[in-house]
Amino acid sequence: MKNIPRIFLDTELKDGIQIPLLREISHYLAHVMRTKNCLVFNDGLEFSATVSDDGKFLNVGNKTNHMDPSGDITLFFAPIKKTDDMLNMATQLGVKQFVPVMTERTVMNHINWERMKKIVIEASEQSNRNSVPTILSPIKFEQLPFPGLIFADERAAYGAELPTIITDAKNILVGPEGGFSDAEFKVLDKNGARGISLGKTILRAELAAPIAIARVMK
Question: Which of 87, 166, 178, 196 is most buried by a 10 A CB count?
């Protein structure tokens, strides 16, 4: 429903229940949106809700007919300076889960993951999703599920002939700001990962991710 605020609630939702109203949500509804009505969602479902007369609870109403537009893609990514921008855009595109990957050239080892969780929640609320993507624990490059993995391949900018659309994949990998090392390219090629072209220019990682996602989702 248009112009009705959407709020993610990390609890099991069903019609007819009352949920204690957190202070930040109360402030948002009363002073930012100036309404007592909202939509709440979790686990792929969306419900109407109204602030109780005493302002202490959200009364959950009927389940809406809105279908969750989220996809089934996992984004493996090397943490970068603008990880927040990357996760925000990828969430809006419907990514199901995120897996940080420590590559040879990964330099951002100290990411505030609690802040990243807040960013994907806000992006889910804004983008009309009924679910919030999960952020899994970091893995090493060697732990990637290589067979069938699609990765943003910068070699296309140097003349390599690569596909620009791949529609049968669920796992996407985007490298760090310095790109993959020669050794990592060899591992990717040897173990069945497939490179996808993002064009003839070298893109920043935070831009490469949403473009790769869009080309796989086509």
Answer: 87
203 DSSP 8-state letter: P
1 pLDDT more than 70: no
* Nearest of 141, 143, 123, 144 to residue 132 by alpha carbon: 123
Phi, psi of 74 (to 5 degrees): -105, 125
One DSSP character per residue, 100-169 reads EEE-TT-------HHHHHHHHHHHHHHTT-SS--EEPPPEEGGGS--TT-EEE-GGGGGT----S---S-
The C-alpha angle 98, 100, 106, rounded to 5 degrees, equals: 145
Res 68 pLDDT > 80: yes
Residue type, 58: L
> Residue 61 is encoded by which pair of tokens?
């109403």
Q: Which residue has the tokens 């899994």?
A: 136
50-61 per-position pLDDT tens digit: 999 999 999 999
DSSP string, 48-84: EEEE-TTSSEEEEEEEP-PPP-----EEEE---TTHH
Phi, psi torsion values for 100, nearest 5 degrees: -65, 140
User: At a CB cut-off of 8 Å and minimum separation 6, what does 12 contact?
Assistant: 42, 43
Neighbouring CB atoms inside 10 A of 180's CB total 25
Cα separation, 91 vs 18, whole angstroms: 29
